Amino acid sequence: NADIAMYRAKESGRNNFQFYTAAMNERLLERLRIESDLRNALERNEFVLHYQPQIDLETGRTVGMEALIRWQHPSLGMIPPLRFIGLAEETGLIVPIGEWVLRTACAQAAAWQRAGLGPLRVGVNLSARQFAQHDLVNVIAGTLQETGLAPHLLELELTESLVMTDVDRAIGLLGELKALGVQLSLDDFGTGHSSLSYLKRLPIDALKIDQSFVRDITLTPDDAAIVASIISLAHNLRRHVIAEGVETHEQLIYLQNHGCNEMQGYYFSKPVPPDVFERLLRQDTRTPASTN
Ligand code: C2E
Ligand code: MG
Ligand code: MG
Ligand code: MG
């Protein structure tokens, strides 16, 4: 009967609609919950930094590490940065969170150096909001002074989009940061749209090749060519190169053969809590990179 079929279609349509809104509500609720929890996470001490080693491809030694934030949510468990950094950006909470990251990472690097495990450079990711703060240079100078970390052991990781949004301002600001003596790197290099003419003018010390290119270097000739080109471009501009996302021995060999300076990736270690990182450092006399 056509009437019944019509009625059923309407009914199920309505159910679909209700189902849809229920799913949307749930997502919205989770977002609201995360947002309100995020406001209290700093004072409740729920953030932790994990560290991922950066290996010198010539010596096989750990020369630095990247500090990567995680949120230990009391009921949702460990939340990775990509699930809350965007929200922290939108709400402005990234500014105090970012300052906490900077202070904690610098204090940790200074402590490892005092313990005879350094000197190790520590990389800290800067967000767009932080980059837009007027007092960024003062905050960084103050943090270095407070923690006693030598400025050249702090590496600020910036993305291309962050720098390219307002190149003239960025060039001025990066110059001020360089005057403090810190290192600067361009993160996720190759995924944004930095123009080569600006690249030449930016006082950047290193390019971090994005993991999307590294992933397929031993499978896709185009990715291999892109990686080799980024390395020679960087070297011709007297920049250092770090490959991200190195997961296999073959990738490591390719990078080594093409003169890449450093690598970071699961092949060597995932980002790990400070106590585990410290154990890695204490064993760091032989490393996968030096078995070549
Ligand atoms: P990123 O700065 O490009 O960091 C590298 C990301 O790649 C990390 O993800 C790291 O765990 C992952 N990774 C490293 N080696 C490998 C590998 O061999 N294979 C694969 N598949 N992945 C690898 P994570 O920790 O989830 O961080 C994601 C992003 O969140 C970071 O990307 C960064 O943009 C942002 N982030 C992390 N911590 C902070 C922070 O303190 N402040 C800000 N503003 N952003 C942060
Ligand atoms: Mg980074
Ligand atoms: Mg990256
Ligand atoms: Mg990234």
From TrEMBL:
Residues 31-285 form the EAL domain. It comes from the Bacteria. It is found in: Membrane. This is Diguanylate cyclase. It comes from Noviherbaspirillum denitrificans. The chain holds residues 718 to 1009 of 1009 of the full protein.
